[in-house]
Amino acid sequence: MATTAIWDVTDRLDRVIDYATNPDKTENLDFSSPDFQGLRDVLKYTAREGKTEKQFYVTGINCDWVTACKQMSQTKLQFQKTDGILAFHGYQSFVPGEATPETAHAIGVKLAQELWGDRFEVVVSTHLDKGHLHNHFVLNSVSFMDGKRYYDNKTTYSLMRQTSDRLCREYSLSVIENPQKGKSKHFAEWKAEQEGKPTWRGLIREDVDKAIAASMTFTQFISALRKQGYEVKTGVKYMAVRPQGKERFVRLKTLGDDYTEEALKERILKNRSPKPPQVLPEPKRKRYTVRGGMNLKKTKKLTGLQALYFHYLYKMGILPKQRVSNKRTHFLLREDIRYMKQLISQTKLLCTHRIETKEQLLTYQNELEQEMTALIDERKSLYNRLRRCKDDEQILASKEQISELSKKLSLLRKEVKLCTGILSRSEEMKQKLLQIKQEEIHQGKEEKTYEQRSRSSRSNRQYES
Questions:
Q1: Which residue, of 144, 159, 179, is where some domain finishes?
Q2: % of the chain beyond a pLDDT of 90
Q3: Which end of the chain is more exposed for a tag (fewer CB within 10 A), N or C?
Q4: Contact 398/386 with Cβ under 8 angstroms?
Q5: CB neighbour class for 375 (10 Å; exposed up to 12, middle 13-18, buried from 19)
Q6: Total number of domains constituting the chain
Q7: Which segments constitute the MobA/VirD2-like nuclease domain (predicted)?
Q8: Global pTM exceeds 0.90
Q9: How far apart are CA 354 and CA 350, in angstroms?
Q10: Is there a single domain that holds both residue 130 and residue 244?
Q11: What residues does 242 pair with on adjacent strands?
């Protein structure tokens, strides 16, 4: 059984690239420039060593995969189509244990040749680093034959799935007979979910599902979304929402087939039954323990970076264990749950070493780097001694020492990485907390104004009666 998907790879959206058509300029183009960064990144990822057994299962179709980025870029320049979608990133995943690497790669190459081999440059790679074998396809968005663009739509994806199923049957692999609809996701979102990390589009889906479960009419659904802090855009071609703290609106139809306006109305209609609408419970929050030799009850009041991190964890709903308020966690902080391991590790470091200021953090990081330099020099001398040594016992002893030094260096590098992360993350945390505070103040003023108007209205009605 193989599942398939395909996504577009876009260039930086904040600018439109305009290249000169002069052949002299195109021949001298610097392909290391950031103009084709998105294309280079996806090619680098799909052919990464360790994922493909030293790149043994990588094949270029109508191109050499080693220079695929340059060749694809030259095709775009030749037909003056360097803007818009750079490439398409396809995916084909097999059931664990059902296919061998050779079989999976052969199916992937045949699939690419049948679908795109007559007009497009494609790189096919088979990844072996997960429990399931899977193929990646990087398809140039512009044809080298006629310069026409490839258009990804329901028809072309259906052909991709049908071709994949037929090839799987030819190789005696199982096939999904009745694939579910409305389950497509963007690759970055799919990858994050595979790694157990929440995505902001996934959080929107959760909130929309919760609003539907609590609504009997479409008007109630919109009201429920607004109560959750969303700005809702209706009366337009495509209904869109904007979460708290986000600059851009998201069209609900892009979340999947179950989230188009028609599908939402159908789902709300199903709630009209004798049973009262059920509100989905809040997802259980994971509890984390921060150890580091500090007793929060006995220690002095936290300040600086320690206070910042503990306050941030509190606002996220992680600390303390017993929350006094059941107020919904802000969208910006719910989104940061994906970085929970780093946040906890950084908090532990600050507590363990009593670090409160950036100056103390930089001093500690400098000490770590000095210790690393000394260990690297010591390990280097051991390597030199090992090359000259002929005694088996001395060789074994040197290797053990090198192994111990490498373990120490690994731990130190992790500590340095945590320090660097704290320096970069702390400013972002301050900005988010400030934005949330301003929104809470604004919301409080609106609620106060609404309450005053309600009181005034009730007083007028009593006076008239």
A1: 179
A2: 12
A3: C
A4: yes
A5: middle
A6: 3
A7: 45-173
A8: no
A9: 6
A10: no
A11: 231
